[in-house]
Amino acid sequence: MPTAAATRPLPRPVHHRSCAVPVPRTGAFTRAVPAALGCVLALAVHGIPAGAQQLRPTATGATVAVSGRGGLVSTNVDGESRWSRATGVGGEVGFGVNPRLAVLVALSSLRLDSDPAQRFRDADIGFRRLFGRGGGTVRPFLEGGIAVQRMTVGVPGGGGATAEVRATTGSVSGGGGAMWFLRRQLAVEGAVRATGGRFSSWTDAQGVNRPVVPVQARSVTLRVGARYWLAGR
Q1: Within 10 Å of residue 4's Cβ, how many Cβ atoms?
Q2: Is 6 a domain residue?
Q3: Structural domain of residue 37, as residue ranges?
Q4: What would you report as the CA-atom Rg of the chain, rounded to the nearest whole angstrom?
Q5: What are phi and psi of 37, to 5 degrees?
Q6: CB neighbour list of residue 74: distance below 8 Å, 6 or more residues apart
Q7: For residue 198, what is the DSSP state?
Q8: C-alpha span between 172 and 88 (Å, rounded)
Q9: What's the domain count of the chain?
Q10: Where do the H-state alpha helices sit in the chain?
Q11: Which of 91, 102, 220, 233 could form a disulfide with 96 if both were Cys (CB 3.0 to 4.6 A apart)?
Q12: CA distances from 59 to 39, 75, 94, 219 (A)
């Protein structure tokens, strides 16, 4: 923990009051996302046209995926919390062990809209549990795993310049969504993911420790992308 003499540059870069997302908007976001996913999941329950079912999709074998993502990030410094919008991209590689279980390794990056110098990078390893009929065109899923997160922010440096500092932490992540197959080995998918962590050990680009106050961060993101199976079986 930093001493009384430690610099406290982080609250200003992290929290821009003019750009912060009000807390009530967080509720609207979290209500809208499940509603959108509910429409997709309803298709899995009530069925789809017979012509689409003839695709006989695969869910096994090696797979790659890319996605765009956006959501809300909360940063808490000394009990003061602010929500901000964030956008980013991500990619995954995975392997479908059977029609209901897959293992995944994912990399993603998020950048705060209110402060582009502040960003989060995640590396996740986890699993996906698929539901619905094996070989179905719409496959709901739940997923979870462990993540290594890195947070980068800008702080005042010498001569009025801005220096980057970063901290790394471990966390757990979880979420769910659905895949909709367009071809036997190609699907579009949408999912909601939540994660968070405490960032307390900050270093600069040279690896020198910097006395910056700890930050507790949480994020809720929606991702939409495409997934391709390299060789389904």
Answers
A1: 4
A2: no
A3: 11-229
A4: 20
A5: -70, -30
A6: 81, 82, 83, 84, 196, 217, 218, 219
A7: E
A8: 19
A9: 1
A10: 11-14, 23-46, 50-53
A11: 102
A12: 22, 37, 11, 29
Q: Rounded CA gap, 110 and 108, in Å?
A: 7
Is 97 within 8 Å of 112 (Cβ atoms)? no
SS3 50: helix
d(CA 185, CA 171): 32
Concatenate the DSSP letters of all residues of 130-170 into one string: E-SSTT-SEEEEEEEEEEEEEEEEEEE-GGG-EEEEEEEEE
Residue 145 forms part of a structural domain: yes
Does some domain include residue 20?
A: yes
Q: Quote the pTM value.
A: 0.71
pLDDT digits (tens, 9 = 90+) for 34-91: 554 454 444 444 444 434 445 568 788 999 999 999 999 998 888 888 899 999 999 9
What pLDDT score was predicted for residue 222? 96
pLDDT in tens, 78-102: 888 889 999 999 999 999 999 899 9
Q: What average pLDDT does this structure show over 204-217?
A: 84
The 8-class DSSP code of residue 113 comes to S
Residue 77 lies in a domain: yes
- Cα-Cα-Cα-Cα dihedral of 217, 29, 123, 63, to 10°? 170
* Predicted pLDDT at 172: 93
